[in-house]
Amino acid sequence: MSERALSSALVPLVIVIPLAWAVLCLLRPRHRPTLLLWPGLALWLIASGMLWQHTASGGLALHLLGAWTEPLGMSLRTDGLASTMCLVTSLVASACGAYRLLTPLGDEPSESQRWFWPLFFMLGAALNVIWLAGDLFNMYVGLELLGLSSVGLVAISGREQALSAALRYLLAALLGSLAYLLGVALLYAAYGTLALSTLAGTISADSITYVALALITMGLCLKTALFPLHGWLPPAHGVALTPVSAMLSALVVKASFVMLLRIWIGLGVGIITPAFAQSIGVLGAGAILWGGWQALHHADLKSLVAHSTVAQIGYLFVALPLLMSGAAPGLAWDGLMLQITSHAFAKSAMFLSSGTLIVAVSSGRVESLHGVTRHMPLALFAFGLAGVSLMGLPPSGGFSAKWLLLHSALAGGEWHWVVVLLGGGLLTAGYVFRVFRASFVADADHRFDKTPLGWDVIALLLAGASILLGLASTPVLSVMRIGAPLAGLVR
Amino acid sequence: MNLGALPVWVLASSLAPALLIFLLPERTRAARTALNLSAAALKLVLVGVMTWRVAQGQVTEVRFEMFPGADFVLRADALACLFAGLSAVLWLFTTIYAIGYLEGAPNRSRFFGFFSMCVASTMGISLAGNLITFLVFYELLTLSTYPLVVHRGNAKALAAGRVYLMYTISGGAALLLGVALLYGVAGDIEFQEAGSLRAVSESSWPMLRIIFALLIGGLGVKAALVPLHGWLPRAMVAPAPVSALLHAVAVVKAGAFGIVRVVYDVYGIEFAQRLALLVPLTIAASATIVWGSLRALWQDDLKRRLAYSTVSQVSYIALGVSLFGPVGTVGALVHLLHQGIMKVTLFYCAGNYAETLGVHKVSELDGAGKRMPLTSAAFTIAAFGMIGVPPLAGFVSKWYLGVGALEADMPWVLVVLVISSVLNAAYFLPIVIRLWFREQTAEWPEERTYGRWETSGWLLIPTVSTAFFTIAAGVLASFPFSPLQWAILIARRAYLS
Amino acid sequence: MSRELWFALIGALLFALALGAFLSHTHLLRRLLAFNIMGSGSFLLLVGLSQDMRGPDPVPQALVLTGIVVAVASTALALILLRRWFAATGSTTLPEDSAE
């Protein structure tokens, strides 16, 4: 296969593989077609790895599905951000999938066993569509697919709280995507195209564009659970099956954020005013404080981790004003990219290890973790490593991200963001150490159930990845800069 | 073995054992002990080789890029060897001590794992070649000492851990901000002899002063400068070997060592003098010295008394750093080592009394010298050293500090030193008198017997050895590779003129 | 005013009305209906406004077709969840809303 043919095949492949397995799993009547699943995960990983490798070696690609040109056709394009997110998606999803495969089914309702895998792969395909989509409408399709499969995954455990959380999640998701769609409709009416590349050249600062961008921003902020639109997230992420929570927090909320990022820096330069960017950043700061505060006070371990996601999302939004109107957008971009990727690894590791701990002590409460250091050292160690990254302590991806954002803020003398970044770190330390503190209490009065060793290994690998990203982030960041429209940001 | 990567080997010789020990099951005592001791011995050899090479003028360095604009640098220079040498020696003895101390206690794998991790962080701190690498290990130290502080897992330990974290994490944030600001002003700051900030334009000087305050504030938390010292006495709930390590090598010293690095190798002592940064540091250090000693007077709990003594004694280092002139520098650096050796001895002794006799309070020590003569002799030597009785190690430190004060034209510092020595005597001598000259009045609270020795050999050997070092460092101060000679070597390089 | 613009305005009006209903009602079925009307409103707007501004155009029609499929799928999922919720609890509102 020639180099060119390979690259044009790889791009759709990372979407087609999970999509195909979603269908295959749906067709298989068995609850856990193990023999089918491992090759699926492996193929997905290989294709994503090759795509990343290809992009890293300088291969930007625009792929037109079925050779239909825009605007009717579906265009997929790769840049550093898209390929890296595809790779991160496949890594995190494989880890969560493997975790699920190692889970003893026990008394789980057969329905949840039946539907997990089709929805799981559908979620992966939807994510990849969003990372690779080159126009606003494909993004919409990806977003809807993503929303539906996420809601399905939250609901499958069938418990009462799961149903109400899923319903709440669905309502928020529907509202968000309609706002987004309305914005897209306005943009199409005004400019006659939805391709980001074409729009970027023609867009002008008139009122219809402002209304459209406002609607899009609002819809996507709701989907990303930006404070104060975050109410749906903690119950949904807190109540879902452990691997589902991990995928939702690590990847799904990032999808709508990456869309927002692409739209803002693709279209918004010169249109989005510094004041507007600052006010979005203020909401991000609110998320950091509110999420951190809630995480400090929740008795339930998974709720704690879910609220931590609300707070960590805040960092992404704090980076936006630094990126759009700061003095050093390059640093902000690098910091943002690192925050997205390292949080994906750290948060999935944290959810998976929390799930393991919860199974081991048969309780979801933080106080039930007494004596865990002795009986579950590996799971706690994975939780700890992930915590290090979330707290932004070195050496970790979270630290490097915070450092870069801090620099970006200091370069422009924007002290308020410095305070937020440092204060957020202290809050995070507060809730992460709450868990450690409980685990070090010596007198454990309950028994410890055995958990699969593989669970710990998976969580440790993910947590290790988030640490490693801090020690050697240069290669990753240099790939993520490929094709990033940074030139337009430097003023 | 590739000697160019020596700093990495030094680091790995405690990081790798840490990870291995975590994986060892609780009951494999022999394997854990062997691993602990061989790793400590190996590290001592590696540090020895490293020091030898530095003495020959060879500086080894390892670097790679962590993320754009920030390199990870490990460099073996003279100052690094000073601190790494101290850590390596005391780690070996404290490991021996801890093996004996924790005999039969639960959670030993966890303990020794974090113990090794803590030493690895200390090694990283000593070898860090720039501020950001220093920061990495400084925070790692916080993380690896927390489990040691809360090791006992009771309410008191957890409360102490909470206070410890609040102080150190906030200190870490101040340090991070300071380092980030400094990168903004001057780019990637490598540690180098005589500093590298002289070239910064005069318009940035006010900013440099603010940064200095942030850096010293962040480091001062771990170095327990008053009023940032509140965590230290509370952290006394930790097991004795942890206290020994925290006070003599790891945490407190990391802070003090950071101050040394910032003043000599980032700002440069002469530039710091020009920015008028040294006098405030002198005042802060002097206040800490007097306040710590005063508080120590009133403590009946032996470990708490020693803790306040640490608050006071560690600030001698900051004091020496702040005295402009090579003699003051020598005093600071030599005290970095001497305080470690003496304080570790005192904590070993406190642990011995607690383990063997169940004695925790000063008032219960009457007559203990007869029951435990070797331990009490070690305690007496170290206490006299702290007071500054010649020819012990502490005397050498105080001598150089005093001369340094005169050289820096700050005679009032001499007054501080005299007051402190009087206070040292006031809180140490009563203990010594109780040990030797009082009759035992009551039964020992929880006596244990260990055959023909006064206590377990694991506990006794480290105690006696470090007491011996306290004498040797003073008596043999003029021999090559003594702490004093090494400090003089560094001081020569720190001054341009 | 062209017929297309009129469609678009009706679409916007429908969207606004349905949004009000979506936010003010707590009964889940009503909220689902409101969502569907919001969807229809935005489809009208999408086709109407762009054809008003740029003449007959197949693209918005294709987009709306896709949008309708998505809306049907979402509605189906919502109905399943709603029935399950009702079967499990006998309630037609979410617990957070019914407290009011």
Detailed description of the structure:
The complex is a heterotrimer of chains A (491), B (497) and C (100). Chain A is mainly alpha-helical. Chain A has helices spanning 3-27, 34-56, 80-101, 110-132, 136-155, 160-191, 196-202, 207-224, 233-239, 242-267, 274-297, 301-325, 329-361, 372-375, 377-391, 397-411, 415-440, 453-471, 474-480; strands at residues 61-64, 75-78. Chain A has a two-stranded antiparallel ribbon with strand order 1-2. In chain A, helix 3 runs antiparallel to helix 10, helix 6 (160-191) crosses helix 9 (233-239) and helix 15 runs parallel beside helix 18. The radius of gyration of chain A is 21 Å and the shape is globular. Chain B contains 20 helices and 2 strands. In chain B, helix 6 (155-186) packs antiparallel against helix 7, helix 9 runs antiparallel to helix 14 (326-357) and helix 12 runs antiparallel to helix 13. With 100 residues, chain C is an all-alpha fold. Chain C has helices at 3-24, 28-54, 58-89, 95-98.
Structure keywords:
heterotrimer, A: 491 residues, mainly alpha, two-stranded antiparallel sheet, 76% helix, C: 100 residues, 4 helices, elongated
Break the fold down into its secondary structure elements and pairings.
The complex is a heterotrimer of chains A (491), B (497) and C (100).
Chain A lengths: L2 H25 L6 H23 L4 E4 L10 E4 L1 H22 L8 H23 L3 H20 L4 H32 L4 H7 L4 H18 L8 H7 L2 H26 L6 H24 L3 H25 L3 H33 L10 H4 L1 H15 L5 H15 L3 H26 L12 H19 L2 H7 L11
Antiparallel strand pairs in A: 1-2
Helix pairs in contact in A: 1-2, 1-4, 2-3, 3-4, 3-10, 3-13, 3-18, 3-19, 4-5, 4-10, 5-6, 5-10, 6-8, 6-9, 7-10, 8-10, 9-10, 9-12, 10-12, 10-13, 11-12, 11-17, 12-13, 12-17, 13-15, 13-16, 13-18, 15-17, 15-18, 16-17, 16-18
Chain B lengths: L5 H18 L5 H27 L4 E8 L2 E7 L1 H24 L6 H20 L3 H19 L5 H32 L18 H18 L8 H4 L5 H9 L2 H17 L1 H6 L3 H20 L4 H21 L3 H32 L10 H4 L1 H15 L5 H15 L3 H27 L19 H19 L7 H12 L3
Antiparallel strand pairs in B: 1-2
Helix pairs in contact in B: 1-2, 1-4, 2-3, 3-4, 3-9, 3-14, 3-19, 4-5, 5-6, 5-10, 6-7, 7-10, 9-14, 10-13, 10-14, 12-13, 12-18, 13-14, 14-16, 14-17, 14-19, 14-20, 16-18, 16-19, 17-18, 17-19
Chain C lengths: L2 H22 L3 H27 L3 H32 L5 H4 L2
Helix pairs in contact in C: 1-2, 2-3
Gyration radius of chain A, in Å: 21 Å
For this entry, what is the oligomeric state of its chains? heterotrimer
Mean pLDDT score of chain A: 86
Continuous helix count of chain A: 19
